[in-house]
Amino acid sequence: xxxxxVIGTVVATQKHRKFEGAKLLLVxxxxxxxxxRGPALLAVDALGAGVDEKVLVVMxxxxxxxxxxxxxxxxxxxxxxxxxxxxxxx
Amino acid sequence: xxxxxVIGTVVATQKHRKFEGAKLLLVxxxxxxxxxRGPALLAVDALGAGVDEKVLVVMxxxxxxxxxxxxxxxxxxxxxxxxxxxxxxx
Amino acid sequence: xxxxxVIGTVVATQKHRKFEGAKLLLVxxxxxxxxxRGPALLAVDALGAGVDEKVLVVMxxxxxxxxxxxxxxxxxxxxxxxxxxxxxxx
Amino acid sequence: xxxxxVIGTVVATQKHRKFEGAKLLLVxxxxxxxxxRGPALLAVDALGAGVDEKVLVVMxxxxxxxxxxxxxxxxxxxxxxxxxxxxxxx
Amino acid sequence: xxxxxVIGTVVATQKHRKFEGAKLLLVxxxxxxxxxRGPALLAVDALGAGVDEKVLVVMxxxxxxxxxxxxxxxxxxxxxxxxxxxxxxx
Lengths: 90, 90, 90, 90, 90
Fold this sequence. Notes:
5 copies of one chain form a homopentamer. By secondary structure, chain A is mainly beta. Chain A has one domain (2-82): CATH 2.40.50.220. The first copy, chain A, contains 1 helix and 7 strands. Chain A has one helix at residues 61-68, and strands at residues 2-11, 14-15, 24-29, 41-45, 54-58, 78-82, 85-88. In chain A, strands 1-3-4-6-5 form a 5-stranded mixed beta barrel. The longest helix of chain A has 8 residues, at 61-68. The interface between A and D is medium-sized, with 30 and 33 residues. Strand 6 (78-82) of chain A pairs antiparallel with strand 2 (14-15) of chain D, so a sheet runs across the interface.
């Protein structure tokens, strides 16, 4: 799983029927000191996360489909947690 | 999922029987400001997307097979949405 | 899926029993203008492709196993189409 | 699987119900001579690993879900072993 | 699948019960002219491969689990063949 920040939303009116009602978030993966890392990607929202929140993103199809609660949904990334704290040992 | 633009089509007469009738699109992943990012790839069309459209691409085998509506199809990428707008928070 | 060229074959007499009889091809992924891209990889042949042919390679375990027609075969890449033409829109 | 070191923990109070009770570890992949390699990532703890331990991390959704013992958990990485020794042949 | 050389072994006494008895190999992916390519990784041995042998490695969870003959084992890479020859067409 990766730590990312929600940086936007995407609207796609015409989409696969298994996506009906699913919210699509644009998330930016972060380094441990909260810098952007690599390209932003799209994830379905399984939790009601909002823009600017720091989230836990799962990046694998089966896992993301489960997160959405729709077993056979064609998704490959999902927001599955909202992060409170990250403790790094010194 | 990734944002990409449809940039072409591929014809493969001789193919695995589970692909019969499936349309193969050449899609170019994009950055958030619509620049090409990385190499183009092939995705099956689950939606009737046309050349030049900005689309939502799922990149994982199980998910892509579901998108095609053929559970055991040997595919690993599919177009599952046509993108209307991307809203990036400032 | 990716476009690749078959550049060789691999012989492995001692192998997992689910591979019995499967042909192993060495395939080189290509850019859109047919230049080699990244390292060559091994794919099972689900179609009877020959050396030098331009092929469609699926790169994911479940999908590749389906391609081989052996549900639980331990494979992660398979040749699933022989490419006739690639049309890139200008 | 990869060799990594546990470097921290992550707290996410609000998370997908399938994660209830699961411990989230921040793990840093290592090279063979124990240098950090690439970005740190999050993995669920299937074993009771502690900070600073050298662990075996599985990085794939189905495998990680199994590790957690919850078949349909939306996870994509898990700690599945604590490493005693690595023997590299000369 | 990838061509790799077995370069070592890993001992992890404390591990997920589905790994009991499985041998963990450290494998180094190779280029076509047998140079090391990218980082070494861990793979379960499904075949009895020894140090220094050139092997066929499958890198995907479902496939690797099948290779081990334990459907729900939390593994993501497995040695599934021992390579005799690689023929590259000129």
